[in-house]
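hiii, so i know i said id send this last week but things got crazy w the move. better late than never?? heres the sequnce for the chain we talked about at the cafe, plus the structure i predicted for it. fair warning i was half asleep when i ran it
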Amino acid sequence: MILAGDLGGTNFRVAIFRGAQEMERVDSAKFRSADHSSIEEMVHLFLKGIPVEAPLMAAAFGVPGPNVGGMVKASNLGWNIEIKALPKLLGIPHVSVLNDLESTAYGLSALQESDLATLQVGSGSTVGNQCVIAPGTGLGEAGLFWDGFRHTAWACEGGHADFAPTDELQHDLLTYLRREYGRVSFERVVSGMGIANIYRFLRDTGRGVEKEEIAESMKREDAAAVIDRHAADGSSSLCQMAMDLFVQALGAECSNMALKTMATGGVFLGGGIPPKIIDLLRRPLFLESFLNKGRLRPLLETMPIKVVLNDETALLGAAKSAFRILENRGVVSQAP
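okay and structure toks below
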């Protein structure tokens, strides 16, 4: 049996699985991350409350933040996680810590068709490299290398690469954001904060009029959620313009990542935002922005594009990774 965990700024999901092939969930729980001081504290609380019928042979955790020299600083929590100390702290022989998007990438192979929404069928093949772009609170990205037999995920911090405008309006957006941030990454545009930034840009440059009730709502609620809601119900042309510009920038960054990874096996949109704006993503605007790469358009047309609907994908990916640890040590065999 193995232990898998998915650490977020809000929640920590943890579960025990058995069987590398069937990945049967034995037990699971969810903790509020901010109520605790470490992963090991929450794991011990979880294990304390359940009977474990066999020893846990491996564990893997998806954590937001880069692994630098065996140390991971969990974004939004400020926790420093020393990977080599975890086996002793947890009482589990083999422990791995993955970037959260790397964990999400591994989880793709555990999903059913019902866990995905198709935006472009493309070739319909999963053979070949794949990539994941996940706009939520921030912008996460990861790739999956196809070795001819199976996919191996790798983490990156591509969301922090420089934002590149594709038209005059986006150029003006970049100029506006530079005044505030200096350097502007894609995360400043393609994320929850990005939606709010785009809205402010359109409002402050006179491209739309803000309604008082929307301004008041944004003081009490998440700004991106308010903007999306008023865009969807048609009550604010300013909000609609903001969401359209967000979708254009998302499409462009998805194809940037797709070209850099040669993702002929599929482009997957994860994170908290895409499942909430499926109807918007299915309109021509997203796909046209994705395909707007000149001579490379025919290549991009072959790439399947899907939205990940299962919010436990990162947890499933952590489980996949833990079983791979055992497979690499000859303890179990795992399907690709």
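btw The mean pLDDT is 93. thought thatd interest u
miss u guys!!
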